[in-house]
């Protein structure tokens, strides 16, 4: 979908755009130091006639903290349940630590899952919940005590050890569920929207604790979320899912700056999207913003992040880039930045984020300005 191209704007030659490189591919193997801990090949799962997961190929390496990110219903939980062994794929192979576990149940796999609803035993104390798996595994009592204490400390619940589950808040129950899964020291810890029910403050606190726990105990974490901020703040690799497929699997940086598809570009972060056409290698964004871009004829999508656009009064565009004329329609102060909204000649809404205070922009609502951006901050999708 992405291809090398040379852009000319108003007949001014400019340097070629950066090609969508294979940095993602390189990064995928970076620091892996050998074999994947989880390997999925050609995984498919349908419910009735509905293809919930559609041909997923994913390799997760030891020590990775992977986020599975996507909108509601895109198949995240279904995929996680197949990794955990709670659901069997219709097709494909899942290997964990080199072993084909496709037809194995959850108990046979070196995984542990923290479900969205916590799944704690309500009639047991916090301590009993955390020690339950170890007890079933037949570990000696003294060892269980030691491991439970350790994990209570990890999730900062030591003082609640004797409490009944019913006497805990949602956030505290979440910590117990996490400690219970951690107590088994799974090779792969699976988390499904584990922080979604918490309020913002507590969620941020738990995020930094999860990061710290991951660093402290190592192991591989895979967690499902529909929250981009959460995915980016926790994971070293993000799998962006859409309609049962993984559209991109790469570092947060790569996903944000080099999205592979227009879905990834718009789902992750803010994006200005221009739908237009390419005819004989020419794209006419507006009458004036015309540039050369080799590729097939047809509909295309252009994406530019709001922070990469510069409004200028008086209309002296940066000739090394692309520019359009637009009218300011809204201005809102967002704290660390100011968002300016414009409507361009084609009636398209364009947002521009400027660092600092609104007054610095000096732009009045209703005013016509020139919006320009460097051509290498623009991504063209053939879709
Ligand atoms: N047991 C089931 N029977 C029938 N359909 C199912 C079942 N489980 C999931 N689905 C369907 O498969 C699709 C993917 O569901 P899944 O739970 O994996 O989505 P999700 O990405 O986790 O969404 P959310 O963010 O809302 O939790 C949905 O359309 C859902 O309705
Ligand atoms: Mg889900």
Describe the protein.
The chain has ten helices and 22 strands. The protein folds into two domains: 8-20 and 268-381, OB fold (Dihydrolipoamide Acetyltransferase, E2P) (Beta Barrel); 23-257, 3-Layer(aba) Sandwich (Rossmann fold), CATH 3.40.50. The protein is elongated. A hairpin with a 2-residue loop joins strand 3 (38-47) and strand 4 (50-60). It is α+β, with helices and mostly antiparallel strands. The protein is 25% helix and 33% strand. The longest helix is centred in the middle third of the chain and has 18 residues, at 200-217. Strands 8-9-10-5-11-12 form a six-stranded mixed sheet, with helices on both faces. A five-stranded antiparallel sheet has the order 15-14-13-16-22. Strands 17-21-18-19-20 form a five-stranded antiparallel sheet, with no helix packed on it. The structure holds adenosine-5'-triphosphate and magnesium ion. Residues 47, 50, 52, 70, 72-78, 226 line the site of adenosine-5'-triphosphate. Adenosine-5'-triphosphate (ATP) binds at residues 47, 50, 52, 70, 72-78, 226.
């Amino acid at each position: 979908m992405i291809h090398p191209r040379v852009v000319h704007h108003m007949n001014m030659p400019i340097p070629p755009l950066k090609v969508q490189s294979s940095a993602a591919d390189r990064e995928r193997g970076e620091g892996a130091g050998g074999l994947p801990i989880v390997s999925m090949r050609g995984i498919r799962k349908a419910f009735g006639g509905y293809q919930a997961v559609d041909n997923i190929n994913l390799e997760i390496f030891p020590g990775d903290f992977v986020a599975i990110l996507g909108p509601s219903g895109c198949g995240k939980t279904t995929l996680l349940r197949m990794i955990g062994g709670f659901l069997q794929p219709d097709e494909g192979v899942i290997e964990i630590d080199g072993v084909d576990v496709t037809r194995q149940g959850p108990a046979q796999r070196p995984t542990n899952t923290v479900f969205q609803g916590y799944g704690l035993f309500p009639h047991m104390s916090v301590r009993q919940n955390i020690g339950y798996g170890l007890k079933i595994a037949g570990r000696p009592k003294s060892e269980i005590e030691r491991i439970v204490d350790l994990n209570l400390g990890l999730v900062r619940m030591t003082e609640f050890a004797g409490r009944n589950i019913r006497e805990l808040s949602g956030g505290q129950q979440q910590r117990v569920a996490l400690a219970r899964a951690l107590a088994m020291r799974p090779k792969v810890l699976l988390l499904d929207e584990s922080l979604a029910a918490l309020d913002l403050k507590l969620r941020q606190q738990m995020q930094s604790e999860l990061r710290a726990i991951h660093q402290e105990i190592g192991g591989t974490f895979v967690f499902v979320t529909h929250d981009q901020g959460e995915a980016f703040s926790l994971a070293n690799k993000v799998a962006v899912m859409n309609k049962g497929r993984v559209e991109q699997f790469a570092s947060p940086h790569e996903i944000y700056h080099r999205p592979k598809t227009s879905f990834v570009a718009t789902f992750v972060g803010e994006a200005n999207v221009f739908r237009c056409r390419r005819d004989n290698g020419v794209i006419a964004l507006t009458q004036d913003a015309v540039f050369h871009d080799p590729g097939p004829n047809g509909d295309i999508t252009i994406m530019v992040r709001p922070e990469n656009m510069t409004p200028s009064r008086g209309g002296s565009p940066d000739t090394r880039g692309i520019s359009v004329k637009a009218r300011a329609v809204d201005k809102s102060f967002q704290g660390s930045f100011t968002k300016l909204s414009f409507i361009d000649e084609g009636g398209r809404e364009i947002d521009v984020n400027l660092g600092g205070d609104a007054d610095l922009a000096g732009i009045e609502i209703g005013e016509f300005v020139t919006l320009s951006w460097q051509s290498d901050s623009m991504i063209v999708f053939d879709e």
